[in-house]
Amino acid sequence: MSDYKAFRVELTDKIAHVEINRPEKINAMNADFWTEIIDIFRWIDETDEVRVVVLSGAGKHFSSGIDLMLLASVGTQLGKDVGRNAQTLRRKILELQASFNAVDNCSKPVLAAIQGYCLGGAIDLISACDMRYATPDAQFSIKEIDIGMAADVGTLQRLPRIIGDGMMRELAFTGRTIDGEEARAIGLVNRTYADRDALLEGVFALAREIAAKSPVAVRGTKEMIRYMRDHRVDDGLEYIATWNAAMLQSADLRVAMAAHMNKQKPEFAD
Amino acid sequence: MSDYKAFRVELTDKIAHVEINRPEKINAMNADFWTEIIDIFRWIDETDEVRVVVLSGAGKHFSSGIDLMLLASVGTQLGKDVGRNAQTLRRKILELQASFNAVDNCSKPVLAAIQGYCLGGAIDLISACDMRYATPDAQFSIKEIDIGMAADVGTLQRLPRIIGDGMMRELAFTGRTIDGEEARAIGLVNRTYADRDALLEGVFALAREIAAKSPVAVRGTKEMIRYMRDHRVDDGLEYIATWNAAMLQSADLRVAMAAHMNKQKPEFAD
Amino acid sequence: MSDYKAFRVELTDKIAHVEINRPEKINAMNADFWTEIIDIFRWIDETDEVRVVVLSGAGKHFSSGIDLMLLASVGTQLGKDVGRNAQTLRRKILELQASFNAVDNCSKPVLAAIQGYCLGGAIDLISACDMRYATPDAQFSIKEIDIGMAADVGTLQRLPRIIGDGMMRELAFTGRTIDGEEARAIGLVNRTYADRDALLEGVFALAREIAAKSPVAVRGTKEMIRYMRDHRVDDGLEYIATWNAAMLQSADLRVAMAAHMNKQKPEFAD
Amino acid sequence: MSDYKAFRVELTDKIAHVEINRPEKINAMNADFWTEIIDIFRWIDETDEVRVVVLSGAGKHFSSGIDLMLLASVGTQLGKDVGRNAQTLRRKILELQASFNAVDNCSKPVLAAIQGYCLGGAIDLISACDMRYATPDAQFSIKEIDIGMAADVGTLQRLPRIIGDGMMRELAFTGRTIDGEEARAIGLVNRTYADRDALLEGVFALAREIAAKSPVAVRGTKEMIRYMRDHRVDDGLEYIATWNAAMLQSADLRVAMAAHMNKQKPEFAD
Amino acid sequence: MSDYKAFRVELTDKIAHVEINRPEKINAMNADFWTEIIDIFRWIDETDEVRVVVLSGAGKHFSSGIDLMLLASVGTQLGKDVGRNAQTLRRKILELQASFNAVDNCSKPVLAAIQGYCLGGAIDLISACDMRYATPDAQFSIKEIDIGMAADVGTLQRLPRIIGDGMMRELAFTGRTIDGEEARAIGLVNRTYADRDALLEGVFALAREIAAKSPVAVRGTKEMIRYMRDHRVDDGLEYIATWNAAMLQSADLRVAMAAHMNKQKPEFAD
Amino acid sequence: MSDYKAFRVELTDKIAHVEINRPEKINAMNADFWTEIIDIFRWIDETDEVRVVVLSGAGKHFSSGIDLMLLASVGTQLGKDVGRNAQTLRRKILELQASFNAVDNCSKPVLAAIQGYCLGGAIDLISACDMRYATPDAQFSIKEIDIGMAADVGTLQRLPRIIGDGMMRELAFTGRTIDGEEARAIGLVNRTYADRDALLEGVFALAREIAAKSPVAVRGTKEMIRYMRDHRVDDGLEYIATWNAAMLQSADLRVAMAAHMNKQKPEFAD
């Protein structure tokens, strides 16, 4: 892997560990962050050896969200014409969105491990992950409302599918902070672990379990759930039938079946 | 505000309090109710001073639903030709739906405070609100099944997004009554308060909090969540980018930022 | 009813009891199963006397999912050309899906009663039912991942609408087994009952309650909720208005109203 | 009918003739125009006696589009805050759109008869009609591009379904003027007539023919074609099945059948 | 092939010729017609040897549409309750639609050859075919309007995609008869041939040409065009990528490539 | 501009001329072609000075489509496992599609000028352009069917919206070659010009005309038409209202208005 400024990336036992690595800045999302994350997830997508991703934040906090300096710098690029400014801003927002779309569209499962602050843009980020796990004292807040804007890099678009419409609106209108336990109760995170060490241990255990499954099956499964977020049941059924028409001819099915019959652990090619 | 027969409407501190005001009739929804609610929400939409809405019912109950006299009177308008009757009924139903669409489409957040009965049409109504809060002894029932019809002013259309598909079907098929606590457990209401006084106090506190946020940001947030109920994630991302292309040029962003830096409370224009 | 090999079907008091009846094979879904279930639900759809369906499994377990012999036999039908194999497999998957679509599209409510194993294809099946009830020691697992494939007869398509996106992915990627209590906590089942006897008693009580309602209203309600899983709120409102334009001219409304006025139990025609 | 300032409205032989009536201003669409058209089409919708609508322009031209004075007056309502201006403009555009939505959603067929200029907003208007007929020397132009804006009251949204994507873009990007013959060749109008008299005669003959058909059948037909512009074929089939479930019980079917058998002209109730 | 009462079916040189065979009744669609057509197209779908279908009518006319006796017999099945009648009618219409859906969903191209009358239900039928060819004196009319109903077995749903919105509405509202030449001019048929003999000769020549192509490629092409009628461009691109992921591994590609290089005629397996 | 191997790119008078520049290979689309086109259109998108694009082919032909050597080289990357091959192929197809998506998503209008061969992949390419113009002796063919595959980089997805469903299927199933005149008759090209010189002169004249319009208005217009290809009319109306909420505050509107009043030619900023 190449060197990153905002991240630390490691690949061990088929698991890519992507850690936001600016702990002295509460892992605020600066310009490096937004471009590097695209490169990292392109590499993950193209590297057959990577089967699962764990996303975490170095230090006491997951992330305080977008770096306010970055936001301020966008303002300086604006001119006098409202229409042209609007085109500039629209393009800029689409660019930022592309960074988290890279996480959402990644063909391998992404597990987020969250402790401490998870604010504003950090909620947008974890909404683009597959699953979320936290410590009880994690603090979640849709902070955008407090800087006078509607969240525009994914929270308002992806979170309603995860936590339901009613509580979604309360959190988005008030910016209220919830802790890890409440996050679990409303379905934002799947489980809490006592502290950061237990959290990482627990999430890596899950990741290892997924990494041992057939990669062909895991990617198909992710693609189908992703697809269902936006499509009809009948379209989804037709899509999986077309998908599996090829994938059921893969060796993984035979490997899994044979292992099942012999009560052994299957070994799948990358 | 003009005088209403089925409602009492007050505007204090940027919060419009809309109270169904026929306590002697358990706040049953009569002809006045259905037309006045459209006027009220048009006024709310057009009045910049209103930033949040609290919807409640006067007396011991929120509402017993549609007035059966009104339903009976529709029957008297029918003639002999099934086809023409169908056109009359279809138009009538679309008219009733328009009353609650006015709540759903309102550009400001609507918080429902529910005590006592919340039956039939009242469920249709609260399904069109942004958030719902209740007392523990509130009683919710999709009563339509018991008068031999499928609910047709919004319950079956909006509630599945709020409480999920499985319990939705049980409640709709059986008309089973659930209390405030069960309503909270399945996500129908966000929180319960000990009694009606605590309920109103709690909901108004929330409303005040939202009223203090940037109105530009609150409306954008509501529009985006409303949009996501029916659209794809990629469409939603494109829509917020286009929306914020204008809104990020608003003064509210600067006001909020400045207040944030100075750790002061921001003051936003209406 | 005709004789079935994989099922036992009874009609009592307007309730069709459909029981998977291969307890010695843990109710594994063999070739008979997949074709008979279509016939059974066509009969249910066409038989006005049937108002509700209870679906259960004979013996200690609900079902272990698709019979692995059946899966193996599909493999033997494949030839050398990958393209033609893909067409064969695609057609075969669409056929299997059609069996559970018959359950999903059935115009009467289907209640699943689940004890013991509910694995793989059995999850696909219960995802196509209206409501699910279980014993605390039931065991649910999206087993497909362990035989190297993405679930393709409905689980990945229907379950996200029932249990939400976050936990859905964990269960689908890991194949983790959850018991009845956890299933209830995440909304997969509506309620648990102490043991199989209590379960069937409870589910039949619910079924009787639904069977006593207006069949015109129950079918309309089911059609609307089914429709909303895949459509927009505004489309849903237009659809129910068109539907009820005819149905509100039914006698059931008058029967229900009259009974309501006289505080009697209504009797509806089939 | 009440008196209108921008229109002349007549009802003869079940046909409503709606004529834009500001010939001295080339029928430019002023403030009166935009509000009165809503009232007129509401009246048409609610008046059973009206079965078809003919829309035309008094004098030498159909219409030169939106009155530039009106456009200028909107500008004066804007303040300093870009965000609040954007909300004002968005609301204003939605209001203007509502005027032509009233034409599009009208339950009776609307036939446009076009001579002379048909520019800018006038293209938006005729795109919302059911059918269009013209004189050979009519002049059509998507004029909005020449005042520096994208057409926002319906042309860009509805016209592609009528004339196809390729020529649509050329006309929208260039604002090129086409005459009646070219309009017919690309499907924008169904037929041309030698001059204004022949045009009105021809369109009224068509209108009379439609007025003689079953109103139940005509409205159902219009609703279905309108629905198909935005929905899937399978949704459309389900919708017409639900619609006709009521409408086929209408007397019109029997009247039409009987007339058909006896080779007589049927007479339908309004 | 089994014997059919309403059809004559022949398979020669990979082309199935399906001929409506009740010339003495102007090929009116009776009860046999509607059930046999489903069987015929299921057989076509399952028989690898069939690569293309030609659909024609025996005698002087293609078909006069639905048999009025059949329509009348439906009326006799209705009872007194409007609601239950509506359910009966809805089910009946869905059944009739299923007959033409079988044509639309057929995995092989269907070419319609039309001479003489093509009225009412016959328009519904040819709208479900892939391509249409006619004699100049063929007569097309959306006859349903004249029997007091909106067409409900496919014309209003499928035809707008073929002939565009503007002329569609004129033909549907007036029931106006157009001949083969006008049908060609508006895109309803692709080409006209001088008389019935030339028509069949021309259509069979086309069919032979298609039958000589790779069946894997032809089916993929049909599936994609069918899919695009109802889906977004981005969904369509993702779908063909998934489809071709398997199909490009087929031998047909190599066979076609090799033949292309050697300038020979390729021979594809069924 | 940087140097390209497969293209020649020039920017003159706000018009980017993109010419496929491998005339000795009939402009076949090789590996360079597919990657360079993305860079070129990214540059076009980001360069405010570019307002319109003309796409043409050097020499006697527009393009013979994908280079068969490239196709062959993909085959060599495949291994033994059908499932993994399918994933490789799917990714490869999505990559090729991305090249033409770059044309489709380009925010400036793209005009294709076509002479000679326009085969296979070249049809996919021109389907992604805004408008198409040709010489009478141009030759169009959906060639993919003849190499045993369904077209998978855009033809089957985009062309039906341009030429209608009926002729689309004939051309796709048969691969029949049509010339410029027939292409014009079915709406594939907007106009023909006598020869290549006249063609380029005509297309550049059109391009200059568009380049003189307000760039803010042109981009908005393109975005809206692109959006309508895949969205509902009501969504489109909401989208343009949101878009114009910002754009109508642009200076271009005032510039255009002032020029219009003074009957002068407006000058817009890039």
Automatic annotation (TrEMBL), chains A, B, C, D, E, F:
BP terms from Gene Ontology: fatty acid metabolic process
Subcellular localization: Peroxisome
Main subcellular location of this protein, as a coarse class: other
A molecular-function term among this protein's GO annotations: isomerase activity
Gene Ontology cellular-component annotations: cytoplasm
Family matches, as CDD domains: crotonase-like
Keywords, comma-separated and alphabetical: Acetylation, Fatty acid metabolism, Isomerase, Lipid metabolism, Peroxisome
Protein's pathway: Lipid metabolism; fatty acid beta-oxidation
PROSITE patterns xrefs: ENOYL_COA_HYDRATASE (PS00166)
Assigned protein family: Belongs to the enoyl-CoA hydratase/isomerase family.
NCBIfam families membership: PRK06142.1 (NF004794)
Protein name, UniProt field: Enoyl-CoA hydratase
